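Reply to dn_fold:

You asked what the input looked like. This is it:
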Amino acid sequence: MMNYQIYLLRFLLLAVMAASGTGTADAQMPGPPISGVVFSEQRGPMGGVTISLVHPAVGRSSPALSAANGGYFFANVPPQAQPYFIEAYWGNQLLYRGQVRYEGGTVRFDIRLP
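and this is what came back:
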């Protein structure tokens, strides 16, 4: 076979594999490394709460803002052997400070407020 015929066959084979979903990376996009819901026993899910991760080696994360359903998430969290501090603020008022371990994978961490 001539070179262009080989390239054409490779192209067609790759196109068929991509269309059928085989031969491509079957890894699904991972979920956010750390996610959860901010929930108040008195008010239910709380939107508009600012959540931050703090770690002595990594520093402070960009803040996440909880959605109307209380949901929040952090992407691109570097795994660490020591736990992160997780903080929840309403304006400048600290509502919660706890610890969450993240050594890889996905972690669900719900924040319960009074």
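The chain is about 15% helix and 40% strand.
Hope that clears it up.
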